[in-house]
Predict the structure.
Amino acid sequence: MRDGEVQFGEKVVTAEQLEAWEITVPSGLTVTRRPDRIDGSVTPLSFDPGTYSAHDHDEFLRKRLSFIVVVAEVFDGRRSLGKAEAGGIVWRHHEPLADVGYADLDVVFTDTDWQMLVVDAVDRAIRAEVQ
C-alpha cells in the first residue's frame, strides 16, 4: 500500500475474513496481503544443498519455476505498523511465468497459512503501537 492506495497484486483482507479467522484489528487499521519478489540474484542452487536440483535451476532460468515471498501488512493510513513474510514458495507452471502479481496466491498458500501470516502481522502492529 502506497499513499493509502492498494498496489498491483495486493489485496485488502476484508472485515468478514478477519472475523472468520477470529482476528481482532483495532479500528482504523487496514490489513493487506500481497506477493513480493525474492532478489533476482537468488536461484534454486542458492538454497540449502539437496533441496533443489540442476533441473530445477534450468526450469528457473526458463522462468517455469519461481520463488516468491508473500507479505501480510498492517497500515494506519499511509504508515506501515507491522508486517509478516513467508518465503521460499515454489511455483511451477507449464508456461513461462508472467509477473508474480498476476498469480492466484490462494492456489499456493492455504487459508490457514494466510491466517497465521495475518495474525503475526497484526501482533507486530499492535506491539508497535504500544511502544
Notes: The chain has a mean pLDDT of 79. The beta strands are 11-12, 29-37, 65-76, 79-92.
